[in-house]
Amino acid sequence: MLKIYEIETARDTLLRRERVNTANYPAALLAGVEEIFGEGVRPYGAVQRILETVQEGGDAALIHWTKILDKTELDDFLVPPGSFKPAYEALPGTLVQALNVAAERIRDFHERQPLPNWTTTEMGGLLGQRATPVERAGVYIPGGSAPLPSSLLMSVIPAQVAGVERIVITTPPNPHDTILAAAHICGVDEVYQIGGAQAVAAMAFGTESVPKVDTIVGAGNLFVTLAKQQVYGIVGLDGLAGPTETMVIADETANPAWVAADLLAQAEHDPLASAILLTTSQALAESVQTEVAQQMETLSRREIIAQSLDARGGVVITPDLDTAADLANAYAAEHLCLAVEDPQTLSEAINNTGGFFLGDHSFEVLGDYVAGPSHIMPTGGSARFSSPLNVMDFVKINSIIALDPETAQTLSAQAAEIAHAEGLTAHAASAECRMVKRDSEGL
Q1: Could you give the residue ranges of the DSSP H alpha helices within 7-58?
Q2: Out of 335, 348, 406, 417, which one is annotated catalytic?
Q3: Same-domain check for residues 186 and 272
Q4: Are 304 and 345 contained in the same domain?
Q5: Same domain, 207 and 223
Q6: Which residues pair with 5 in a beta bridge?
Q7: Tell me: the pLDDT tens digits for 277-314?
Q8: Band of the pLDDT at 239, cuts 50, 70, 90?
Q9: Where in the sequence is the domain holding 422, given as residue range(s)?
Q10: Confidence of residue 439 (pLDDT cuts 50, 70, 90)
Q11: Contact yes or no for 127/73 (Cβ under 8 A)
Q12: Do both 162 and 187 map to the same domain?
């Protein structure tokens, strides 16, 4: 049952953010971790152990963890490149068409993103910046409880638009044909069947068979998120894309059946997924509650949905839309769906979200697959300071400094002054020796 909350109760429970490594994990998850890693070991510690063993043991550790965690024995992780096209050709024609439409829209959207290359000669010589792509990008594609070819398209295409030369994909063992077909559509053929934290470790540290990358992107489960958190600094990250979440703000004009369907679509991802409705209408809240109960009975993943809604889902009654906007800003949801009479105006009162979905015709599932922007968005409240996956996640900015002699002479005195104030006499001397030279030349 989808519970209905008053605001104060919701702030202390449903809307409260927790650090990912100190979260109140479900008992079943903790029991599973302890069964494999030992009594008292929590997810963060389990991931730490996996990372350490892969860093030290390379492929041997990958073989071990794949056998233990994925119940699969492998000694060669690279998926044969020759299997991609047959997988593509084996799919139904309607699915092939849908994947190609999605790929075209994703590429079209990201090719419109400007890269911040610029120069100026107005500051004495040449100054500017240049965006250059990373050489190797690692992409993690979930594939455990459900294959996600859409995530491959949403991750790989922005990297290609950025100009990344080598894209390394990891996904759990025995990848579904749809994953390989999506790789074929993108024109990439380096896919390793490695899942979870061990996949992140392989890409971060490199092994005998898996190349070390410069940055790792992609959504994943709790263990992938914890692994990314622990390897940050060794590699770059797009963010900590953990359990997915959606927040819907609805007024009395919303269609309760559609709102319920959107909440259920989010909840079916993962028992740790969050699906939250904020509404000004008690009647709508009760109608959505009824619709959720009825609709979920027909869904294939209703057990996962029930766990998600029970632990992390709910409806919050707000006195007005301004209050709902304040709660949304504080929560900073990955997806924010505005099912209200005037979604554009309401969106202008909210800054913190991975993506705005404005109105009934821009529901989140379209964003998940075919709208165009990447569906890999910031979770866990990180939308307060981070962005959805985009071309900039695959480039770094190089500063360009080429001052003319006159400007350098003028600025050397200023640089030396600041260096002396900081007690850095070698810095000061480096500037002052240029000043002396130019003075001796009579300039």
Answers
A1: 7-12, 27-37, 43-57
A2: 335
A3: no
A4: yes
A5: yes
A6: 316
A7: 999 999 999 999 999 999 999 999 999 999 999 999 99
A8: confident
A9: 404-440
A10: very low
A11: no
A12: yes
For residues 240 and 382, is the Cβ–Cβ distance under 8 A? yes
Q: Is residue 382 part of a domain?
A: no
Pair (119, 45) in one structural domain: no
Domain assignment present for 76: no
- Is it the case that residue 20 has pLDDT exceeding 60? no
For the segment 127-145, the average pLDDT, to the nearest whole number, is 92
The answer to whether residue 335 is catalytic is yes
Block residue for tokens 């819907």: 248
Residue 22: what pLDDT? 56
Alpha-carbon distance of 138 to 134, in angstroms, equals 10
Q: Tell me what percent of the residues of the chain surpass a pLDDT of 70.
A: 96
Q: Is 364 helix (H, G, I), strand (E, B) or coil?
A: helix
CB 195 within 8 A of CB 169: no
For residue 261, pLDDT over 80 is answered with: yes
> 299 with 209, same domain?
no
Q: What angle do CA 94, 98, 103 make, to 5 degrees?
A: 150
Catalytic member of 245, 291, 334, 364: 334
Altogether, the residues listed in the chain come to a count of: 443
Residue 141: predicted pLDDT: 94
